[in-house]
Every structure is written in structure tokens, then in C-alpha cells.
Task: structure prediction
Amino acid sequence: MLTIETVNQYYGQSHILWDLSLEVREGTCGCLLGRNGVGKTTLLKCITGLLPIAEGSIRLNGKDISKLSTEARARAGIGYVPQGREIFPQLTVEENLKISLGARGDGQTKVPDHIYELFPVLLDMRHRRGGDLSGGQQQQLAIGRALVLDPKVLLLDEPTEGIQPNIVRDIGNVIGKLNREMGLTVLLVEQKLPFARKVADDFFIMEKGHTQASGAIASLDDHLVQKYLSV
Ligand SMILES: Nc1ncnc2c1ncn2[C@@H]1O[C@H](COP(=O)(O)OP(=O)(O)OP(=O)(O)O)[C@@H](O)[C@H]1O
Result:
């Protein structure tokens, strides 16, 4: 479904992604794991088009999207929730959601009802400024904003970072609902292993810019955790 093949990426002279390959299967939730600085965020940005790749291909349902603009990739079905959420603090919740509507290219001017059904708090707070929301509410807004574009695959960069435990559970439930009930394919970067085990089907462990191990999340054993993830 989302196929990354022998991707290489550089920041200037620094070679960050090295012949990286992985496949997120249709309808599954894949989880990218790895210590700080191994290139997880860089990979997500390469998939969205925010960063160019030097070599390799990124295919969505067989079509190479690696030369498309970020906006064209969004229209093709790549949804992205960046690390740190990056909502617009001065705009209202509704305005934050409506900003994405413009990129749909179908003239729709109303926020789809299912966004507010998934996140009732956004409906309650739709006239409040994004900056007035709690971290957990902002995360829900950032996910809602990505869903406005009806993505085929949703990329989430550490959605639980800095969020209190009961809201982490809510976010896990929403990802589960999107993935398992609504069939949305998900690629998640996550540091919290219990969360990853709860929501993911597959894992991809990155080290030094490429995939070192991958498989069903149930096969992520202590040996792999010790070798590639413990700090
Ligand atoms: N804009 C940049 N310019 C130069 N180097 C960068 C830039 N952004 C990231 N890097 C470097 O690229 C490497 C990969 O960073 P990246 O943020 O992708 O890692 P990560 O696995 O997502 O880490 P984290 O868990 O800390 O977010 C790191 O060595 C980082 O210092």
C-alpha cells in the first residue's frame, strides 16, 4: 500500500536515510520505532514531500509519488500529523480545520461531520482559539485537520508526546477506531512501547537511517527491545 524502497536522503553532506525500505500493508497500523535521531521524523517528512529524497521510490498503491509536491501528495492520500502538532494558535478550532479544506480541491466548505463525531471536544470548542486548547485537545485537532483531507494513509509523529495518560488512552482509541473500524492505513512514530503494542499490527525498527528489524508487533521481543530501543 505504502511502499518505501531503497530511499536515501541527505541534509547537506549528512547522509541520514540509507537504502531504507519498508512496506505498510493496506488497512494496517505500522509503527516506526528507534532511538532518538535515527531518522524517523525525516522519513515521515520524505513521505509527505516536505523533504526531498536523493534516491529510491515512495509508492502509494503502486504509484510513485516521490516527485510530487507536498500538496499533490496530500490530495493523493497522504495525511500527516507532525511532531509538536503545529496547529495555528491564533485561529479558532473551526478555522484550523477549514484551512485543510482548501487543499481538497473539491470546493467543500464545511468541516465533515465525522471529524466532530470522532472528536466531540472539537465541536464543543470550535469557536475557541487553538492556542487555548490543552495539549491533548491540540493533538485531537491536529489529527482532525489531517482527516479533513480524507487520507488513504495517516502518518502520525509521536502523537502521545507530552500528553497526560487518560488522553493518551483516548488517542489510542481514536487511532484504533480509524484503523480497525474505518480501515484507514496508519504509519505511526512512537516511543511508548505499550502504546505501540496496543495500536500497531507491524513494527519497523530503525537504526542509523535504515530498517534493522521488522515484523508483527507480537514478535517484538525483549532481545530486540534491548538491542535497538533501550536507552
Ligand atoms: N534540518 C536538519 N538539518 C540537519 N540535520 C538534521 C535536520 N533535522 C534532523 N537532522 C539530523 O538528522 C538525524 C535524524 O533526525 P530525525 O529527527 O529524523 O530523527 P528521529 O529518529 O525522528 O529522532 P527523534 O526521536 O529525536 O525525533 C539526526 O541526526 C538529526 O540531528
